[in-house]
Amino acid sequence: MRWMTRIKNAIRGAITGWKGSGFDFSNWFGRTFWGIDNSTLATNETIFSVITRLSNSLAMLPLKLYKNYDLAVNQAADVLINSPNPNMTSFEFIRLLETVRNQTGNSYALIGRDIRGQVERLTPLDPAYVEPVIETESGELWYQVIGNNGTYYFHNLDMLHFKHIIGAGGLKGINPIKVLTNTNDFDRAVREFSLKEMQSAPNSFILKYGANVDEKKRQQVIEDFKRFYRDNGGILFQEPGVEIDPIERKFIAADIFTSERITRSRVANVFNIPVHMLNDSEGQSYSSMEQMMREFVQLTLMPIVRQYEQEFNRKLLTPAERQAGFYFKFNVNALLRGDTAAQSDYYTKAIRSGWMKPNEVRQLEDLPPEPEGNKLWISGDLYPMSMDPTQRKGVSKGENGTKE
């Protein structure tokens, strides 16, 4: 029965990850959170699409800790980049935070610290149980969290909080799905109408008899027609003197496509995402995929990325570390790379113009550094920037002995 013991210990270890000094959220383990908003997310493919794209795009970006432009590592970086908590990878952690931020307007993660004050765990919390409050005497921001054994209060430096825009005097981000309430209701009504039209479309016919029939006979004819249609799999037999004409119904009207485009446009506006990212290319003109991605990165992702970076820097790094030059940074260039030809031309010009080192290019391409790759070069053809220009080949000496 060792395998049973091993499973029990694994479950106990997972639940322990939701407990810590001063908090206990183990009763949340295995629960389904955010039921109301999840129903909207699960039944509206447009909103599902935009939130999936935003959360996946952010989670896939390379995240590193730097010290004055050089890669660095400390305990906070190891936790954030490799294992935020016993139950999640970094990708899952960031994707969950971004998904919840777009579902509810706010996402939270509790920062667990060891006895030395170092970050050791990042635990995502259900926004329904978290409320930002201002302490009246100090005026500082705290977070009220309803846990298993009561209500807890955490200082803002111990809580990661990512949010949409905030209204005047507010502390919480505005829920974008609530902003789209009217759009969702309209879209749902159009879909229900179309579904009813589609379901009723195959069952409508015009029957023409060569003679007048009374009301009783008419009802018998209708019932006999329906029975024959049902029992014979939709095949009808047209008797002499009887004409059967189906009523043509267009259950997908042209207006439905217009309403879907309106819905996509409104969702794109609320989430600040280019409408072409929702597969709506009408009226769009781009010469390359790189231009499309550049618009997405600059107008949509950069504000989100900047919020995450500043939250990580302020709350996961100490003041001494920040003063020493440490900072977290997402590499958005991973989304801006062009095709192979354009990227090769970019690297070639960067190296030959002397503003990028070969090893920096190799690092972007996940290649190992070379011993001579940490120098800046300039075409002439390719001399180290530090080299005396008079030592370059092809420079002739003047009368005074100097090279010209």
TrEMBL record:
Pfam annotation, one family: Phage_portal
Region (Disordered): 378-404
InterPro entries: Phage/GTA_portal, Portal_HK97
Protein origin, superkingdom: Bacteria
Keyword terms of this UniProt record: Plasmid
Protein name: Portal protein
